[in-house]
């Protein structure tokens, strides 16, 4: 059967079927049904403690649902092995300034998945890390220790790490916390560009209602417990074209705008 351009653009990236989660006896997520399709930008909004981080942790396999099923790229999560297809930036936590890794090492560590942990890094891998740092405008910080950087610079390093494999799905947990307003604007411009021109699907938790609603609209597609899902699709057939991260690094750099 011929797959139409439209269907190709709407492949299932994440599906949650009656997913529940409890910490001991405290139920945090209750029978959540939600699907993320290719090229969706899903904004996840909710009050403190609503379960947003818990949800993202389930999606990347750090927590196991108490009930229900999660599928990633149409495979049950328990059988899913292609973790390089997913980039994840967890919620920012205070970095120990003595942590010895450099920015380049942090970015390169994104190359290691369970599958490839013993593989030597190739020249191509090293170049990908340089490209990701260029895209985030942190190439000048490559040899600096991560613990010595500002919060915003650290976030960019972790974002570079998340995109180093040119993932199809980027999962971001409050990526702009601790970043100044001007850098935030550049950051949102950049992820919008990645959504529209780099064939990426996004799931992003944020408390920044203004930014989320300006891109995703004011009406949530779904409300589940204390969590609201705002979704923007890019449906134009031309958006289905494969692009790669490196081809327009200049554009991404312009998008960020500020250093
Ligand atoms: N490891 C844990 N053990 C027990 N309870 C937890 C644990 N982690 C989170 N919780 C509780 O689960 C609920 C959901 O937490 P979660 O971090 O998912 O919320 P959130 O929506 O991401 O909140 P925030 O906006 O503050 O980041 C909260 O009530 C929290 O206290």
From TrEMBL:
<dbReference type="InterPro" id="IPR050153">
    <property type="entry name" value="Metal_Ion_Import_ABC"/>
</dbReference>
<comment type="similarity">
    <text>Belongs to the ABC transporter superfamily.</text>
</comment>
<keyword id="KW-0813">Transport</keyword>
<dbReference type="InterPro" id="IPR017871">
    <property type="entry name" value="ABC_transporter-like_CS"/>
</dbReference>
<feature type="domain" description="ABC transporter">
    <location>
        <begin position="14"/>
        <end position="249"/>
    </location>
</feature>
<dbReference type="InterPro" id="IPR027417">
    <property type="entry name" value="P-loop_NTPase"/>
</dbReference>
<dbReference type="InterPro" id="IPR003593">
    <property type="entry name" value="AAA+_ATPase"/>
</dbReference>
<dbReference type="InterPro" id="IPR003439">
    <property type="entry name" value="ABC_transporter-like_ATP-bd"/>
</dbReference>
<dbReference type="Pfam" id="PF00005">
    <property type="entry name" value="ABC_tran"/>
</dbReference>
<protein>
    <submittedName>
        <fullName>ABC transporter</fullName>
    </submittedName>
</protein>
<keyword id="KW-0547">Nucleotide-binding</keyword>
<keyword id="KW-0067">ATP-binding</keyword>
<dbReference type="GO" id="GO:0016887">
    <property type="term" value="F:ATP hydrolysis activity"/>
</dbReference>
<dbReference type="GO" id="GO:0005524">
    <property type="term" value="F:ATP binding"/>
</dbReference>
